[in-house]
Design brief:
single chain, 359 residues, alpha/beta, Isopropylmalate Dehydrogenase, 2 domains, 10-stranded mixed beta sheet, two-stranded antiparallel ribbon, 12 strands, binds nicotinamide-adenine-dinucleotide, binds 3-isopropylmalic acid, binds manganese (II) ion
């Protein structure tokens, strides 16, 4: 337990976000019922549907309520083909990450079943690492502009922002995680051979922060080579730390190593000393290609609820939830893309039933 409020904002968002958060909500309700956790669930009608209806993205009073009175947000996904410039997603998703200063996007990559590892000759024991993605800077800050737009001489500029403070704190969060979990290595991935100034800052900060953790080996990999090594030999990685954009790309690749986006969970937190509201989302998007067809895998969202409960101070619940998810995968009580026969709702029902027995 910690001092965080027990109020949880549920923001299903768009597409399959609605289907998977419906399952995540049931998991939280089960904890209320079986464990008497004093969780207060607050449903938010925000996303493309609402934006198209009345132009609302993230109202200031909702933002403040989240910031001041919630312990966590469970977000499904944002993105809808009817909003091509993703304006609502920028305000809501990036708005929450940036304005709440949730600088550590933590994306565990842990195979829960041998069958889900697509690499020849490799199994679950080969894939168990975590990516620390910087979540408040980089190319995502929307600093830039256009010149001569729409003409043959058009110029488009997106600035890549790297601050010493921002780089240092995500590196430290990665080393702290390694220390806490008895890991021996932290890999920092950059592109310092091409991106000279930012690469130089990351390199120097990595060397300096690394000195504070003599028991952990700080290793470097260029991000392109990291992608190669992840596929060739994922076992060599324990903790990876990288910038916002590289972290986004690497974690989709990493998801493919342990079953795909349907099982990849994430937490965005302000990894400081005082616990603050966190944002919890599956790594996947709104998947318009399968939305509304009961095909979405809810297990990424269920695991994300595990991360959320840990954040609120309920230690051990992620492991319990992982056990139940592993059972769904082992017995084929899961969706088709991970080798099962069920739809989203039925997979959710199986998980809830198993969890009910475990609680
Ligand atoms: P996506 O993650 O939505 O889908 C990529 C592929 O993975 C699709 O084939 C999809 O069917 C499959 N997939 C994703 N989640 C799945 C699940 N739970 N079960 C089974 N299959 C699953 O990525 P995309 O298609 O590139 O993006 C769609 C929209 O989502 C875009 O608007 C994008 O910007 C947005 N997006 C939002 C978030 C977020 O809100 N956190 C994350 C990623 C993408
Ligand atoms: C993710 C998504 C987002 C990101 C998009 C929707 C802006 O891909 O959470 O991985 O790039 O951070
Ligand atoms: Mn992504």
């Amino acid at each position: 337990m910690n001092g965080l409020p027990r109020k949880i904002a549920l923001l299903p968002g768009d597409g399959i976000g609605n289907e998977v958060v419906a399952v995540g909500r049931k998991v939280l309700e089960l904890y209320q019922e079986r464990r008497s956790l004093p969780l207060e669930l607050w449903d938010l009608d925000l996303g493309a549907e609402r934006y198209l209806r009345d132009g609302t993205t993230l109202p200031q009073e909702i933002f403040e309520e989240i910031r001041d009175r919630c312990g966590a947000v469970l977000l499904g996904a944002l993105g809808d083909p009817r909003v091509p410039n993703l304006e609502h997603a920028r305000d809501i998703l990036l708005g929450l990450r940036f304005r709440l200063d949730l600088f550590a996007n933590i994306r565990p990559c842990k195979a829960l079943d041998d069958r889900l590892v697509p690499l020849k000759g490799k199994g679950a024991s080969d894939v168990d690492f975590v990516v620390f993605r910087e979540n408040t800077e980089g190319i995502y800050v929307n600093v830039g502009g256009n010149f001569k737009k729409g003409t043959p001489d058009e110029i488009a500029i997106n600035e890549d922002i790297n601050t010493r403070k921002g780089v240092e704190r995500i590196l430290r969060a990665a080393f702290e995680h390694a220390k806490l979990h008895g890991k021996r290595t932290v890999h920092m991935a950059d592109k310092s051979n091409a991106m000279r100034q930012s690469g130089d800052l990351w390199q120097r900060a990595f060397a300096e922060v690394g000195k504070e953790y003599p028991e952990i080996a700080g290793k470097h990999a260029y991000v392109d080579a990291l992608c190669l090594y992840l596929v060739q030999d994922p076992k060599r990685f324990e903790v990876i730390v990288t910038n916002n954009l590289f972290g986004d790309i690497v974690t989709d690749l990493a998801a493919a190593l342990h079953g795909g986006l349907g099982v990849a969970c994430s937490a965005s937190i302000h990894a400081g000393k005082t616990p603050k509201v966190g944002l919890f989302e599956p790594v996947h998007g709104s998947a318009p290609d399968i939305a509304g067809k009961d095909l979405a895998n809810p297990l990424a969202c269920v695991l994300t609820v595990g991360l959320l409960l840990e954040h609120l101070g309920y230690a051990g619940e992620l492991a319990r939830i992982e056990g139940v998810v592993a059972e769904a995968l082992r017995t084929g009580n899961c969706t088709r893309e991970v080798g099962g026969t069920l739809g989203c709702a039925a997979t959710g029902a199986f998980v809830i039933e198993q969890l009910r027995r475990a609680l």
